Amino acid sequence: MTKDKASIVRSFHSVYIIILIVGTIIQFSDENDFAVNKSNKGLIHVPKDLPPKTEVLDISQNYISELHLSDISFLTGLKVLRLSHNRLQYLDISIFKFNQDLEYLDLSHNQLQKISCHPITSLKHLDLSFNDFDALPICKEFGNLTQLNFLGLSAKHLQQLDLLPVAHLHLSGILLDLESYYVKEHETESLQILNTKTLHLVFHPNNFFSVQANISVNSLGCLQLSNIKLNDENCHLLIKFLSELTRGPNLLNLTLNHVETTWRCLVRVFQFLWSKPVEYLNIYNLTVVKSIDKEDFTYSETSLKALKIEHVTNRVFLFSQTAVYTVFSEMNIMMLTISDTPFIHMLCPQATSTFKFLNFTQNVLTDSIFQKCSTLVRLETLILQKNKLKDLFKVGLMTKDMPSLEILDVSWNSLEYDRHDRNCTWAESILVLNLSSNILTDSVFTCLPPRVKVLDLHSNRIASIPENVVSLEALQELNVAFNSLAHLPECGTFSSLSVLTIDYNSISNPSAHFFQSCQKIRSINAGNNPFQCTCDLREFIQSIGQVSREVVEGWPDSYKCDYPGSYKGTLLKDFHVSPLSCNTALLIVTIVVTGLVLAITVTVLCICFDLPWYLRMMCQWTQTRHRSRNIHLEKLQGTLQFHAFISYSEHDSAWVKNELVPCLEKEGIRICLHERNFVPGKSIVENIINCIEKSYKSIFVLSPNFVQSEWCHYELYFAHHNLFHEGSNNLILILLEPIPQNSIPSKYHKLKALMAQRTYLEWPKEKSKHGLFWANIKASFNVKLILTTENNDVKT
Ligand SMILES: *[C@@H]1O[C@H](CO)[C@@H](O)[C@H](O)[C@H]1NC(C)=O
What average pLDDT does this structure show over 227-252? Predict the structure, then answer.
């Protein structure tokens, strides 16, 4: 049942994934087919050859100065039109009347002075900012843009009811560019914006802030001001400007971008905001100019929760550091972020501090920060990433009086620990410690907070994890990637370890014991190590196979053999060696057993099938074939009439006539037999010599009878003599019956010598072996001879 369910769910999943993929492909092709990008092409006109199906058209950053109905009216599916950074001076919005689907129209950064109106009810995003409008370009038709979400505007002057036509719309954002705004003499303008969640005002980047307008927004939640240039004289203008905007109870988020100010003015702005409902204040790209002096600050009760200052440039060179740091260190807020600044220090708050979160990333803070500081009792998170910290011991000491500290990030410093003589002290409350990207070595394991749960030590110089370290029983996550560890750790000291990241180290032979030792492991990433693919690794690979796939991060792709060369790059998954080559005992046993089996087989073959005889015959056969191939035929031809002369004892004639001769003649071998071919009238000796000389080979059928026959010895003598004359192996000895060595009379030493020197063919008793015997004999005649006929020879 459950299995069925699971498979149904799985197939559902795969169908869903396929739909997703198909969907993405369609979307992609959509984009490819219907999006046209002609941005930054030096265009003077809208191109005429646009595909009518175009949905997204980008012709921004060109030199287009006019837009006509005919340019785009045929793009009936147009949804997005980007026309920013062109040279339009006038626009008749009614030219979009045929683009019923137009949702996004960006006309910012042109030179528009005038627009004529027409409602395009589909519009969601309309950007008219950074143009040359004198008054806000609001038509009463905009009141019909019920879908409108974002409105970008620009103006040199403001009038209170300019935005009345759109007051009933629920906008989520208004961008109001006041770059070219200028103040009419002795006149304060005002503007009422009724409904928007966020308002972004942009002032002139180089002029001192001078806007004297009362802008009020009802339900503003988020205000962003860009380009604010302040000095001690115009500081009050910004404060006045802000006081109207920050009146509403909902403004929780205030962001200032690109602020250039004196220190005094900045502190005044802080002081002003301290009593406002703003909860989150962000200042990005702050430049401090002129001078820095000690400023008084009253830390009254505040709604402010978090102050974030990122990227500070200080143009003041002589000043008291304390004047700056005191303002921040005494702040009665929960979260403070000061990053990417030239701050070299931060003071310890004088009284019990409200800080829970401090982020001082990327400054130039040193080890002296917060030493002997016992007022940060509520501090839970301290981030000192990318500073100039050097001594881990001092970092530990710093935390000693921070009883609530749970998260400490001191990554990207130059931390070392070499004070083995002194015991480190840490806040016991620390749960997460980030020591990554420092220059710590093995000794770091003797200087760690005792209850740490998450420890990040990646990118350090750790070569091994010492065995006798203080036990870190609470440690659950350990990251030691990018070090030079050679082994996986034992979990004896880390009994709770459940996540281990140890990729990019020098582990060549991870022990399979790891998984037994670390029972609680939920996830291990040991990829990208230089694995040595030898027998020892098999156990580890097997043990990986036993744990579930999700446990081993990056398996199988990040696990590759590095050594030996023949396996380099092979995935561990695909690395297989036979158990035999890895187990010496098994190897020896196998060799011995195989040897024994072979020996027994050979013995059995010898006993049952007379293997040596076969071997001998085979050997001769190959030798003969080889020899016969090397014979110079020309020499032999002409004088020969027969292939063979056979010498045998009378007693063996039955075998010769019934077996040997028929068999040879069947193969076309011509035989000289004395009773058949001897020429009458010649002496026996003459006949024998004649016969031997006219034959290519001489076959001697040896048997005890042969030894007894005198004639046979003569024949043998002549044949042998002939043999030496010719220098070729013309004797074939067939041993018909075994001849005891001592039965050969000593005067026949020739025969004795021949039998000793030369190999002979034994006539086997078993019928099954006869085939090979005959093959051997025939092989001796494996020569094509052109024999002269007997008659011719007789005549010569
Ligand atoms: C430690 O800091 C580094 C960057 O400095 C970051 O990538 C890493 O995620 C942090 N580790 C933890 C456990 O938060």
Answer: 90
Contacts of 318 (CB under 8 A, 6+ apart): none
**Residue percentage of the chain with pLDDT more than 90:** 49
Distance 337 CA to ligand 1 centre (A): 17
Q: Give, as one character, the DSSP assignment of residue 196.
A: E
The tokens describing 186, both together, are: 């002795």
Q: Which atom of ligand 1 approaches the CA of 432 most closely?
A: 13
CA–CA distance, 694 with 688 (Å, rounded to integer): 10
* CA 111/CA 663 separation, integer angstroms: 119
Q: How far is ligand 1, taken at its centre, from the CA of residue 500, in Å?
A: 14
pLDDT digits (tens, 9 = 90+) for 515-524: 888 888 999 9
Residue 385 to residue 393: CA distance in whole angstroms = 17
Q: Would you say the CB of residue 412 lies under 6 angstroms from ligand 1? A: yes
Average pLDDT over the chain reads 85
**What is the per-residue pLDDT across 20-37, written as a single tens digit (0 to 9) for each?**
444 444 444 444 568 999
**Residue type at 332 in one-letter notation:** N
Name the 3-class secondary structure at 635. helix
Given ligand 1 and candidates 362, 436, 503, which is best to mutate, with the most ligand atoms within 8 Å of its CB? 436
Dihedral pair phi/psi, residue 741, rounded to 5°: -55, -45
Output the CA 433–ligand 1 centroid distance in Å.
9
357 neighbors 381 (Cβ within 8 angstroms): yes
CB 761 within 8 A of CB 735: yes
Which residues, in sequence order, are CB contacts of 579 under 8 Å at separation 6+? 586
CA angle (497 as vertex; 512, 450 as ends), nearest 5:
135
**Backbone phi, psi, residue 390, to 5°:** -125, -35
How does 224-233 read in b/e, with b if 16+ C-beta sit within 10 Å? bbbbbbbeee
- Ligand 1: which of 339, 382, 385, 411 to mutate, most ligand atoms within 8 Å of CB? 411
The span from the CA of 203 to the CA of 210, in Å, is 9
CA distance 264 to 52: 59
